Amino acid sequence: MTHPLSLAFLTTFEVGPVEAVKIAAETGYQMVGLRILPAAAAGEPAYPLLTDDRALTEVRAALADTGMTVGDVEIIRLKAEPDWDLFARFCDRCEALAARHVLVAGDDTDRARLTDSFARFCEMAAPHRLTADLEFMPWTAVPDLSAALEIVTAAGATNGGVLVDALHYDRSSTTLAQIAALPRDRVNYVQFCDGAVPYDPSTEELIRIARGERLFPGQGGIDMIGLAHAIPEGVTVSVEVPHRALAEKLDARARAEMAIAATRGILRAAGR
After folding, report:
1. What burial class does residue 81 get, using C-beta atoms within 10 Å of its C-beta: 0-12 exposed, 13-18 middle, 19+ buried?
2. Which residue, 172, 132, 173, is CA-closest to 155?
3. pLDDT tens digit sequence for 226-241
4. CATH of span 5-269
5. Domain spans, the chain
6. Residues 174, 146: contact at Cβ < 8 Å?
């Protein structure tokens, strides 16, 4: 069964959203991922899609012209005191883009409060026809798949999901058996990349690699074929391969081409 492929925001991080849509269309992806809210705590610039109506109109036109759709939109960070008004504006923009999924990160170390916040965001996202997909990352308050699934299950929202990122699966205590056992209705999309093995497990290095030094699927030490076997058939694969050093040598379109070719190779090898 074919997996729809989406060009993740970070793979072509240096281009604007209109250019990202065009690159995705030209290189064979079915979807594109966009970022509206910053992922980093500080130092990351604001993104115009949240407030600039002209930018929104231009992206919508590019989507219509190319036949592309928006897969996921980034990023909701659930902290101890979430900005719900900001999140409401975010959801409005997601709906205007006809987006499908929202990447959610959990930063609140109070598990009960984080679960309540996740449930509230799911409720907020539902009228906009959005799923809320909780990504586990080793350095966050949701460090592995077990934690993510516990929160998503306890929240009880039908549009809540667990987001499996290949790098975070490999760097956490998560197993392929756990991924394969995820309920199908809790997996809306997954993220593919590769990474060097062995690796420095310090938080600083985990974050640095995740944000700017990933490898194309099949070029590192992660069991990508095993992961391809473990994910549900037909689920969307978001290809997320930020590599800042490579970006100094190759333009965004070339890297998008390399990323999709590598991902297709893994899927073919896994019989997908």
Report:
1. exposed
2. 132
3. 999 999 999 999 999 9
4. 3.20.20.150
5. 5-269
6. yes
